[in-house]
Design brief:
Blueprint: H1 7-47, E1 54-55, E2 72-75, E3 81-85, E4 91-95, E5 101-102, E6 108-115, E7 119-126, E8 133-141, E9 144-151, E10 158-159, E11 162-163, E12 169-170, E13 172-179, E14 184-193, E15 208-210, H2 211-216, E16 227-229, H3 236-249, E17 254-256, H4 261-270, H5 283-296, H6 302-322, H7 332-351, H8 371-384, H9 391-418, H10 421-434, H11 440-460, H12 464-478
Parallel strand pairs: 15-16, 16-17
Antiparallel strand pairs: 1-14, 2-3, 3-14, 4-13, 5-12, 6-9, 6-14, 7-8, 7-13, 10-11
Helix pairs in contact: 1-3, 1-4, 1-10, 1-11, 5-6, 5-7, 6-7, 6-9, 8-12, 9-10, 9-12, 10-11
Length: 498
């Protein structure tokens, strides 16, 4: 039984509002849960006499840019990452930092290394990414294994050959290595450590305090390892902005979402939660077998077939983004899974010929999908006074075209077969938003854009106008991003939490 004609738009609008509220809750919950797990790992590390700043490089991808800065090569090893020098000139290896190193509260740096020839070692870094470069010679390593326990404030730090006080923090850290051509250095473990006098267990953590009390204290009197409880009822952007303000004051602080203190302190005793698992090597071939089974033996019931085909196509993106496995890096298993999804989608469309969609549409029809881009353009012009450069939008167009192909051609059309146009529009827009989790503001923006673009595509069946509007809107909205505002970034997945 169909709803009366005048009621259908109201039901659609009410459902869209409920879905938007659910999306906001999902984004905020995923963000709070991720912050809680980070706090649990930090608390457990401190309670055992360690810190969250620990590296055990084994592969090139474990260091910044996956390479040496200078004339040298990296080789993977189960014992550690091997750096072989190709000349006598100094080279550098960067350590990845998502949070600045806090030398005030964690004043020791331990290096576990190995060398097969004499190698001069030094540290280089910056307190901010655009700040002056600090440099301190450390020692000349003798052949064999070595463990160096360095007091940061005791090193002879210089900036441009001028002696300076020790840094309070580093947002960038590099090891500077120099030796004879062919000499090899093995990086086994590097760790920033608290003072030796710090007690173990829960006693290592200062008494928890609310955010307002923490920021009211003078900076020099903040506790050694403060545990700061975030204010309640914050959305994802506000949670991360408040976290960043705490980190700016005390990078080593344990930052706890409201109501999660008990689990964080329990982790300090029981040990940290396991890290987010990487993509299992067997997942891509498993997905390939599933896709092949759906292609060779599809369900006979058309609606069920449409739903299964759409679901299989979305597995790679859902695993990486909604599952919080994407941190900005794509490993081989990730790339293989993405490739399986794209090949599967291409085969689906090749088998569905003749196509009931096209790339282009008459020029007079482009105005509707372009409305979000025009609104963003107006906001950009009001804030910046000039129009953005068009070339970045053209570069983004290919990525937007691929996204909209998967969403509109592969998913929306099949959801329409399984239901109706209204249901397909709401479901596709919701999926589009979820694939931008846990970035709550971006999820809501993409949900609104998904509603407009999907409704238009299902009526007009032209892909390029939707992709062009997506690319233009993304670029223009990107110009409105600011770290401490409602839209802090356009990042998604675990990368959004950085």
């Amino acid at each position: 039984m169909r709803a009366p004609k005048g009621i259908a738009p109201l039901l659609f609008a009410a459902t869209a509002l409920l879905l938007a509220a659910a999306l906001a809750w999902i984004g905020n919950t995923l963000t709070a849960r991720a912050l809680e797990r980070h706090a649990e790992r930090a608390a457990a590390a401190y309670a055992s006499g360690h810190s969250p700043w620990r590296w055990q490089p084994r592969r090139a991808r474990d260091v910044v840019a996956g390479r040496v800065f200078g004339d040298g090569t990296l080789r993977p090893s189960s014992a550690g990452l091997l750096l072989q020098l190709a000349s006598s000139q100094p080279v550098q290896i960067g350590l990845p930092l998502s949070v600045p190193m806090d030398f005030v509260r964690l004043p020791r740096l331990r290096l576990e290394l190995g060398a097969d020839a004499p190698i001069a070692l030094a540290l280089a870094g910056r307190q901010t990414l655009d700040g002056p470069a600090y440099y301190a010679p450390v020692t000349v390593l003798k052949p064999g294994a070595a463990t160096l326990d360095l007091a940061i404030d005791a090193l002879p730090w210089v900036i441009a050959d001028r002696r300076v006080p020790p840094p309070a923090r580093f947002a960038m850290l590099r090891l500077t290595v120099q030796g004879a051509p062919g000499a090899t250095l093995t990086l086994r473990r590097i760790e920033l450590l608290p003072p030796r006098a710090l007690p173990l267990g829960i006693a290592a953590l200062a008494a928890a305090q609310p955010y307002d009390r923490f920021v009211a204290m003078p900076a020099q009197t903040t506790l050694a390892l403060p545990v700061v409880i975030l204010p309640p009822a914050l959305d994802a952007s506000a949670l991360l902005a408040t976290r960043d303000r705490i980190r700016a004051r005390a990078p080593a602080a344990v930052i706890v979402p409201q109501g999660d203190l008990d689990s964080v302190l329990a982790a300090a005793v029981a040990g940290p939660p396991p890290p987010t698992a990487a993509t299992p090597p067997l997942l891509p071939p498993g997905l390939a077998l599933l896709a092949l089974a759906v292609l060779l033996r599809p369900p006979r019931q058309p609606r069920l077939r449409a739903l299964i085909e759409a679901a299989v196509a979305l597995i790679p993106a859902a695993w990486l983004i909604i599952g919080m496995h994407y941190d900005g890096r794509i490993d081989r298993a990730d790339a293989a899974m993405i490739a399986v999804g794209l090949v599967y989608a291409a085969v689906l469309e090749w088998r569905a010929r003749p196509r009931d969609w096209t790339l282009l549409a008459p020029a007079r029809l482009w105005i509707v999908p372009l409305l979000p881009a025009l609104a963003a353009l107006a906001a950009w012009a009001a804030l910046h006074g000039v129009a953005p450069e068009p070339l970045p939008a053209l570069r983004y167009l290919g990525w937007a075209l691929l996204q909209q192909f998967m969403l509109q051609v592969i998913v929306a059309r099949r959801l329409q077969c399984a239901g109706n146009r209204g249901i397909a529009t709401l479901a596709t827009a919701t999926l589009f938003a979820l694939l931008h989790a846990p970035n709550t503001p971006l999820m809501l923006l993409t949900f609104a854009g998904g509603l407009l673009w999907t409704a238009w595509f299902l009526r007009r069946r032209a892909l390029l106008p939707v992709a062009f509007a997506h690319a233009a809107a993304a670029l223009l909205i990107g110009g409105l991003v600011a770290p401490d505002t409602w839209l802090r970034s356009l990042e998604v997945g675990a990368r959004y939490l950085r």
